[in-house]
Amino acid sequence: MENISEFLYGKDYSDKLDKFNKEINQIHAEYNGEFDTSGYFIMQTHNQKGEVKLDFDKNKNIPIELKENVLKVFKEIWK
């Protein structure tokens, strides 16, 4: 299967996820410190509610600037 997110959640979701991932990669490329996207935050998709949530790991010391940039991208794309 070429795109599992499109199959599970639809084309709109898949397009938004692709855009989000590209923006996160851009933030990562421009950020001068450590940036572990798989460890800093988790995205949760709730099909029945029709929403996507972004949760940051409260146990990690995530720089404010980095957190703000990720939140900005998330809100632009998902809200």
Proportion of helical residues: 55-70%
C-alpha termini separation: 28 Å
Q: What is the makeup of the main sheet? A: 2 strands, antiparallel
What fraction strand? Answer: 15-25%
Q: What is the strand arrangement across the widest sheet?
A: 1-2
Low-confidence stretches: none
Name the assembly state.
single chain
Describe the model.
The protein is an alpha+beta fold and 79 residues long. 57% of the residues lie in helices and 15% in strands. It has helices spanning 4-9, 11-30, 37-40, 64-78, and strands at residues 41-46, 51-56. The protein has a two-stranded antiparallel sheet with strand order 1-2. A hairpin with a 4-residue loop joins β1 (41-46) and β2 (51-56). α2 packs antiparallel against α4. The protein is globular and about 35 Å long.
Quickly list its features.
globular, alpha+beta, single chain, 2 strands, 79 residues, two-stranded antiparallel sheet
Give the topology, please.
Elements lengths: L3 H6 L1 H20 L6 H4 E6 L4 E6 L7 H15 L1
Antiparallel strand pairs: 1-2
Helix pairs in contact: 2-4
In short:
The protein is α+β, with helices and mostly antiparallel strands. The chain has helices at residues 4-9, 11-30, 37-40, 64-78; strands at residues 41-46, 51-56. Helix 2 runs antiparallel to helix 4.
